[in-house]
Amino acid sequence: MSETLTLLVLVVCFLGAILNGVFGINPRTVRQRIREASVVKEEVPARLLAKRHEIRLRGGDKGRYTVYFVTFELRSEQRLEFQVEGPESGLLAEGDRGTLRFQGTRYRGFDRLPQDR
After folding, report:
1. Which Pfam families is this protein grouped with (predicted)?
2. What is the rounded distance in angstroms from the CA atom of residue 94 to the CA atom of residue 70?
3. How far is CA 48 from the centre of its chain?
4. Coil/strand/helix, residue 16
5. Cβ atoms of residues 68 and 83 within 8 Å
6. What is the per-residue pLDDT across 86-102, written as a single tens digit (0 to 9) for each?
7. Mean pLDDT, to the nearest integer, of 22-33?
8. Yes or no: is domain 40-112 CATH 2.40.50.660?
């Protein structure tokens, strides 16, 4: 029994390492996406408060990549930060007002209100 359990743990760890290393699939991310699938999608009025980015290193000498974040402030003064894709970040400007769409910790979109000029 103990040997079987040890073997099973080793196989699961090995498969997790293969998925993460070869295919870039992180088991933690998969679990989070499954959990978020059951969370209600929300649409709330919000203002884009800030944008930022981080430059991260890939494992070994595989180079760098940029991760983009946006922070929204809701009418309740609650602030929410989401990771977004680069092109989406480029379309947003600090101070934009509109409707924020999200599901749990996952950003779904932002519909900007027309601004008076």
Report:
1. DUF2500
2. 9
3. 17
4. helix
5. yes
6. 999 999 999 999 999 99
7. 66
8. yes
Q: Where are the domains positioned within the chain?
A: 2-35, 40-112
Question: What pLDDT does residue 89 have?
Answer: 94
Q: What is the DSSP letter of 40?
A: P
Spatial separation of the C-alpha atoms in residues 53 and 10, rounded to whole Å: 37
Written as six digits, the tokens of 105 are 């910790």
pLDDT digits (tens, 9 = 90+) for 52-79: 999 998 877 778 999 999 999 999 999 9
Place of tokens 């990549």: 65
Cα separation, 65 vs 54, in Å, equals 8
Q: Are 53 and 68 in contact (CB under 8 A)?
A: yes
**What are the Cα distances from residue 87, in Å, to 52, 84, 91, 105, 108?**
13, 8, 7, 19, 14
Instruction: Reduce the DSSP state of residue 61 to 3 states and report it.
Output: coil
pTM over 0.85: no
Residues in CB range of 51: below 8 A, 6 or more apart: 68, 69, 70, 71, 89, 92, 94
DSSP classification of residue 62: S
